[in-house]
Amino acid sequence: MGWESYVRKVVPYVPGEQPNEAKMIKLNTNENPYPPAPGVAKLLAGFDVDRLRLYPEPTCKVLVDAIAEYYGLDSSQVFVGVGSDDVLAMIFLTFFNDKKPIVFPDITYSFYDVWADMLRIPYETKPLDEKFKIKKEDYYGENGGVIFPNPNAPTGILMELSEIEDIVAHNRDVIVVVDEAYIDFGGVSALPLIERYDNLLVVQTFSKSRSMAGMRIGYAMGNPKLIRYINDVKYSFNSYTMNQTALALGVEAMRDKEYFEETRAKIIATREWTKQELKRLGFSFGDSKSNFIFATHETVPAREIFEALRKENIYVRYFSKERIDNYLRISIGTQTEMETLIRFLETYLTHL
Ligand code: PMP
Fold first, then answer.
1. Are 103 and 80 in contact (CB under 8 A)?
2. How far away, in angstroms, is 85 Cα from ligand 1 center?
3. Measured between alpha carbons, how far is 188 from 180 in angstroms, rounded to an integer?
4. What are the φ and ψ backbone dihedral angles of 314, each rounded to 5 degrees?
5. Does 84 sit in the ligand 1 pocket, CB within 6 Å?
6. pLDDT tens across 71-101, in order?
7. Which of 211, 274, 311, 330 is the most buried (most CB within 10 A)?
């Protein structure tokens, strides 16, 4: 077929499964186990459906303003999109147009190479060290742009702010993107650096620490000129990215600081408890500062544990990829869910 040679052929990203079982413990896509802020439910219940006749406000002003206010920024420093996946895709499209390859770690968020391939952006990966840490010097050479998550995914390992600044400072002629999807679970954000470096974009999301993965809200923060360029591309692609409910509910979620602090503290406490228990059961892992633990067992292959958990309706994530195919990525659920997980693992591992 002639037309087939003109298809944009891509190998798509494969998201974690979203099973719909009544009784399951879902620890496979790093969602938040707690509901969104109480005001979100109230607002949704009273949402005036007639508003859906109208297009949403295209600049997303209410949400941009709420995010800017929360971080003490000017609204011109904030861009919002349909989850950070959309924000990151827009950033790739806007800034990664050099012939030189963009660079990111070999073990990282597996969407980066998918966007690069889809948009025909050349890329190079830099291996993490044997402890799964990013080696900052790897990012000092000439390149077409830099992107990495902090904490990294799926390792959960955090990079020091001073090291991030070193990478940004060594790359003044290209855009450096720090993907902070998991920063609220114990990391230090690179956000203050945007005032000093006009080549830095910090990307965050409502999907994890704000319990709103289903609402699809993400945002980028950076120099107003960078934000203007992303908006130009967005308006050239789809003017109305954020729907009416996402705009209204996003504002509500951002304003409830108390609930945000309370739920993230619970997740951090449960994560630390889970680390202790996993260690006791013979697992090892780096010091995760995210809402997941990337663990390997001393004797039992990860794939076997993954299958055994699945039979119990406990879903975790397994990647059959070089270097990490003996690891499980276990999202942090409620304390009760993690207790069930540990109880099962204890029985399973002692009866093998
Ligand atoms: N960045 C990283 C590192 C992630 O793990 C994820 C979640 N899959 C995302 C970005 C995208 O999240 P969302 O689109 O839900 O904001």
1. no
2. 6
3. 10
4. -110, 115
5. yes
6. 999 999 999 999 999 999 999 999 999 999 9
7. 330
Q: Tell me if the pTM is above 0.70.
A: yes
Rounded CA-CA distance 284/293 in Å is: 10
- Render pLDDT for 231-263 as a digit per residue (tens, 0 to 9): 999 999 999 999 999 999 999 999 999 999 999
d(CA 124, CA 113): 9
Q: Give me the amino acid identity at 91.
A: I
**What are the tokens at 252?**
């509500």
Residue 207, ligand 1, Cβ within 6 A: yes
CA-nearest residue, atom 1 of ligand 1: 181
Contact 153, 288 (CB under 8 A): no
- Please say whether the beta carbons of 173 and 199 come within 8 A: yes
Q: Which of 28, 49, 9, 19 is nearest to 245 (CA)?
A: 49
Six-digit token pair at 236? 């050239």
Distance in angstroms (rounded) separating the CA atoms of residues 108 and 127: 10
Q: Are 178 and 87 in contact (CB under 8 A)?
A: no
Task: Please list, residue by residue across 230-254, b when 16 or more beta carbons sit within 10 angstroms of its beta carbon and e when fewer do.
Answer: bbeebeeeeeebbebbbbbbbbbbb
Ligand 1 pocket check for 205: Cβ under 6 Å: yes
345 lines ligand 1 (CB under 6 A): no
Cis check for the bond before 154: say yes or no (omega within 30 of 0): yes
Please tell me the predicted confidence (pLDDT) of residue 20: 86
Check pocket membership of 31 for ligand 1, CB cut-off 6 A. no
